[in-house]
C-alpha cells in the first residue's frame, strides 16, 4: 500500500469513526444516558419492599378503554418494548399495593413433608388467547380451546388441571401468526406447536383437578406460597423479627401445637427447605396471614380449595399470630413500571418475561403476584420493578465515555490531518507536518514513507 493510500485510508477511517460515534452518542443520549441519569437522580431506595398486583389490564387489547367504559389514552405503561416507539403495541398497565416486608419464620425439625403445586384457578375468569388474531404463536402449557367462529379462544389450565392416560395426537398444529388448523378440545402446547389429546374434549370431564386428594393428618404446619402448598409436622419454630418473635415462640412452646392438636396456617412468599440428617428445616420469608386452627378440622379436608376456605375463615374468627397483608400496606393502587420510563430497549422480549411474573392480579382465582419493588420519596405516583444502581451507573459511564472518547479521538485525528496533510503540485497527498500548511505550499513536501 502506497503512502498516499495509507493517508486516504486513515482519513476515511477517522471520518467513519467520527460519524458512527456521533450518531451513537445521539441515540444513546435518548435511550440510555438521559434515562439512566434521571433514574439515579430520583433517589430510589436500594432496599426493596414488596408489591402485590391488584390490577393488570392491557388497554390495547381492551380497545384503549377500561372495563367501566372510561376512555384512557394510555398515558403510561408498565413496560413497552423500544422507548423510541412508545404508544404502539401493548399498553399493559399494572397497579399494585405497596407494603412493607412480611416476617421471617423458621420451622425446625420437620418431618413428613408434602410439597405440591396447587391452584385455585377459575378457568372461566382466566385470560383467553385468541388464536385467529395470532395470540397463540408462543403459548406453552395445557390449554382448553373452543372452536368458535370469531376468535378460536384457548385458555390455559396448566396450574389447576392434569390429564393422565390420554393419548396425544402425534400430528401437531403449528401456530404462527395464525394456527394452521382451528383448535378445539384439550391441547399440550410448546412455543406455539400444539398436540391434541384425542379423547379429551372438555377439561371438566376428561381431566382431573390437582390437589383433590390431600392428606392432612398429623400436620401442624400449613404453608401457602403462591401456587404451592407445603404441609408438614415440626417440633419448633422461631422468628428473627422482633415484632413477631414473641407470638411465634408462644405458639412453638404451646403443648397443643407440639402435640399436633393445633396447626398454624401461614402465607409466605418464599419457602426454602434445608436438608438435615433425618429431618428438615423450613426457612420462610415475607410471611403474613398466620393463624391457628384445629387439626381435627384440618384432618377431614382433602381438597385444596376447601383448605384455602378454612384459612380464610380462621382469620375471621380467631386472632392473628402474624397480622394480615393489609396491615403492612404503605400505598394502595399505585402504578408499577419496570423503570421510571416504563420501557426497555433490549428488544429481547424483556417485557414479556416481566409480565409473566408481575401481571397476575388474582382475578382468575390464582394467587396474585408478589415481588420486590422500589420506591422513591420524590414520587408516590409509581414504583419500579427493577433497580440496580451499580449496573445503571456502569451502563451510563460506558454509554457516555466510550463513544465520546472515540468521537473526540477521531475529530482530533481529522484536525491533525487538516494541518499536516497537503496536496502537492502533481495532485498527490503528502504529509507536510505543518510546514506551510496549505495545498501546494510546500516546495519539498515530506514523503510519508520517509517518516517511517
| Unreliable stretches covering 5 or more consecutive residues | 437-443, 446-452
Radius of gyration: 32 Å
Could you tell me the mean pLDDT? 88
**Number of β-strand runs:** 24
The largest sheet has its strands arranged as 5-7-6-10-11-9
Describe the fold and architecture.
26% of the residues lie in helices and 31% in strands. The longest helix has 39 residues, at 3-41. Residues 437-443 and 446-452 have low confidence and may be disordered. The two termini are 14 Å apart. The protein is α+β, with helices and mostly antiparallel strands and 452 residues long. 30% of the residues are buried. The strands form six sheets. Strands 5-7-6-10-11-9 form a six-stranded antiparallel beta sheet, with no helix packed on it. Helix 1 (3-41) packs antiparallel against helix 8 (389-420).
Concise summary:
It contains eight helices and 24 strands.
Helices and strands, with pairings:
Elements: H1 3-41, E1 49-58, E2 80-81, E3 92-99, E4 103-117, E5 128-130, E6 141-145, E7 153-156, E8 161-162, E9 173-174, E10 185-190, E11 193-196, H2 203-206, E12 208-209, E13 221-225, E14 228-233, E15 236-238, H3 242-252, H4 255-258, E16 262-275, E17 280-294, H5 295-299, H6 304-317, E18 320-322, E19 329-337, E20 343-344, H7 350-358, E21 370-376, E22 379-384, H8 389-420, E23 421-423, E24 429-431
Parallel strand pairs: 2-20, 13-16, 19-22
Antiparallel strand pairs: 1-3, 1-21, 3-19, 4-14, 4-15, 4-17, 5-7, 6-7, 6-10, 8-12, 9-11, 10-11, 13-14, 16-17, 17-18, 21-22, 23-24
Helix pairs in contact: 1-8
